[in-house]
Amino acid sequence: MYQSTILYLFNSFKRPTSNLTVILLSFLSLLSSPLAADNASALDAHNSGDFQTAAKLWQELANDGDVAAQYNLSLLYENGSGVGQDNNLARYWLSMAARQGMAQAYRRLNAKSVSPSSQRAAVQQIVTTPQGWVTAQNPSHYTLQLASSTNQALILKYFEENRLQGEAGYYSSMRQGERWYALVYGAYPSVNEAKAAISNLPQDLRKWSPWVRNIRSIHKIMISE
Questions:
Q1: 146, 209, 155: which is closest to 180 by C-alpha?
Q2: Domains located in the chain, CATH noted
Q3: Fewer CB within 10 Å: C terminus or N terminus of the chain?
């Protein structure tokens, strides 16, 4: 299924070029990111009922700023699953996730409660994939597009190499009859805040000449895998 593919990299949708390097990649070799592995391990532990292990893994990731882990950890504290039930810590981690622009966190803060039946579904829905991260973002916010390509594996490679789990994702859309994949970073309440954030990006991300995209417009054109 995951055979090596040949694709061409483009810095953005607005500046395609034809003189590019052909790159061969194996999709399976791109799935070994420590962050992705830890998130996957935490989710597996949760789904198997090992809430203490899930809590430990998500606590470590949440402390490092992983937005998905922050959201999931808030659910564990709210339920008392694997940790002592603590509404203050539940709200703290939920607020931390909301500050990073996660739509589910905003909705839960506004609703102030989640039924037990929906909490488990929410944990499984949380950003365990780069595509899920994009879907989860507040549509009224703005993001920074870093790169785009017709090669899904190449975009995933950049995502993994730069350790962007919880801070970025990618989406796919159709353009002139071809399926494209775009890597986007961050979620900001306004265009000006998004533009200002460019100067604070690591050099490895700034070199791609990021540009601002409205998340609502991305949600309109993105297609499911």
A1: 155
A2: 5-30+136-221 (3.30.70.1070), 34-127 (no CATH)
A3: N
Joined together, the tokens standing for residue 170 give: 């990618």
Return the amino acid letter for 125. Q
CB 71 within 8 A of CB 97: yes
The model's pTM is 0.50
Q: Determine the 3-state secondary structure of 108 from DSSP.
A: helix
Q: β-strands 5-7, 23-25: how paired?
A: antiparallel
Residue 69 to residue 58: CA distance in whole angstroms:
5
Category of 186 on φ-ψ map: left (φ > 0), alpha (ψ -120 to 50) or beta: left
Residue with tokens 């909301």: 98
Let me know: does 71 contact 105? Beta carbons within 8 Å: yes
